[in-house]
Write a structure and sequence with these properties.
The structure holds two protein chains of two kinds.
Chain A: E1 12-17, E2 21-27, H1 47-65, E3 72-83, E4 92-102, E5 106-115, E6 118-130, H2 140-158
Antiparallel strand pairs in A: 1-2, 2-4, 3-6, 4-5, 5-6
Chain B: H1 5-20, H2 41-55, H3 67-72, E1 77-78, E2 81-82, H4 84-93, H5 117-128
Helix pairs in contact in B: 1-2, 1-5
Classes of the chains: A alpha+beta, B mainly alpha.
C-alpha cells in the first residue's frame, strides 16, 4: 500500500504559485539505502531519483491546481534531461518547476534542480492525470483512498 | 572489419538515440553523455550492451567507463578531487581522450564532462583498428 512505502524524493515544498510554479527541497542523507551501492565510497543521488524529485514537485503543482481531482499522476514523457553535477550527502537540492500548461488530464513542465549555486539536473517533461475509476468503476474506492493519502502527505510537505 | 571514424560515429549515434531516447541531432560529437544527453548509471550498462552488439566486440566492465572504479578507490579520490594517482589511473584507462583543463582541477563533479560521444567513438575506433 502506498502509505507503507516511503518513496518520497522531496522533503518540503518551499513555495507555490498556484498553477504556475513550485519550489521544493530535498536534503540528501547518508542514511538513504540506495546510496550504499551508488557508489560504495562515493555516494551520490542516482540520476533517476534526481528526476523523480522534480516529477514529484510538478505533481503537487497539479494536485493543488486541480484540487486533488485525480488519484494517479504519472510521468508521460521526459525530454532534454541533463545531469550537470553530482549531489552528495549533506547537500540540499532545490527544485524549481514551472508549468507550461496544466489541462484536465495532461500537463507539461520545465524544471531545474540547483544545489549551492550549482546546476544539478534539468528536464522538460509531461505528466498525465486520471482516476482508476475512469477505466474501471469498481476502483473508485481505491482512488478515494489514494487521494486521502495524498492530502495527508500534502499537509506534511507544505506545512511550516 | 575496417570502419572509418565517420562510419563508427554513425553507428554510435544510433546506439545513443536508442539507449537514451534523444533525437539524432542532439547526438553531436562533442555532446556530453550526462550533461547534454541525460545519460545516468543505468544507461551506461545499456550503452555498453548495445555497442557490443553493434560492433561485435566484447567490452570488459569498466573498460569504456572506468568512472566507478576510479570513484570507489580512496587512493584515487580525496576531498572531491582526483589525486595524482587517480589522474594517472585515468590517463592509463582512457588514453584516447584529451583531459585538457580537467587535469588542472580534477573536480570529481566534472569527471562526467569527459565522457562525450567522441569518447565512445575513439574507444571503438581504437579497439576495432587495434593491430
Amino acid at each position: 500500500m502506498a502509505e507503507t512505502m516511503r518513496f518520497i524524493l522531496i522533503d518540503k515544498i518551499v513555495s507555490l504559485e498556484s498553477g504556475k510554479e513550485i519550489r521544493a527541497v530535498k536534503n540528501v542523507s547518508l542514511a538513504e539505502e540506495y546510496l550504499a551501492d551508488h557508489f560504495p565510497t562515493f555516494p551520490v543521488l542516482p540520476g533517476v531519483l534526481l528526476l523523480e524529485g522534480m516529477i514529484e514537485s510538478a505533481s503537487w503543482l497539479v494536485r493543488e491546481a486541480e484540487n486533488f481531482a485525480h488519484s494517479m499522476i504519472l510521468l508521460s514523457e521526459a525530454r532534454n534531461v541533463k545531469y550537470k553535477s553530482f549531489l552528495a550527502p549533506g547537500g540540499q537540492i532545490e527544485y524549481t518547476v514551472e508549468a507550461r500548461t496544466i489541462e484536465e488530464n495532461i500537463s507539461s513542465f520545465t524544471g531545474i534542480g540547483v544545489s549551492d549555486d550549482e546546476r544539478i539536473v534539468e528536464a522538460k517533461f509531461g505528466l498525465r492525470h486520471f482516476n482508476l475509476a475512469d477505466e474501471n468503476p469498481s476502483m473508485a474506492a481505491v482512488d478515494a483512498k489514494v487521494i486521502e493519502n495524498m492530502k495527508k502527505r500534502w499537509k506534511m510537505l507544505s506545512s511550516g | 572489419m575496417a570502419m572509418s571514424r565517420d562510419e563508427i560515429f554513425g553507428e554510435v549515434q544510433e546506439v545513443l538515440v536508442d539507449a537514451l531516447g534523444v533525437d539524432d541531432d542532439e547526438v553531436t560529437a562533442e555532446a556530453i553523455l550526462m550533461g547534454d544527453l541525460g545519460a545516468e548509471s543505468i544507461d551506461f550498462l545499456d550503452i555498453v550492451f548495445r555497442l557490443e552488439k553493434t560492433f561485435e566486440m566484447k567490452i570488459p566492465r569498466e573498460e569504456l567507463f572506468p568512472a566507478e572504479s576510479l570513484m570507489n578507490n580512496p587512493d584515487f579520490v580525496k576531498d572531491g578531487k582526483l589525486t595524482e594517482t587517480g589522474l594517472t589511473e585515468l590517463r592509463n584507462k582512457m588514453p584516447y581522450i584529451e583531459l585538457g583543463d580537467f587535469a588542472n582541477d580534477p573536480d570529481i563533479n566534472k569527471l562526467g564532462d569527459l565522457f562525450t560521444v567522441n569518447t565512445i567513438v575513439s574507444y571503438v575506433d581504437s579497439k576495432l583498428n587495434a593491430a
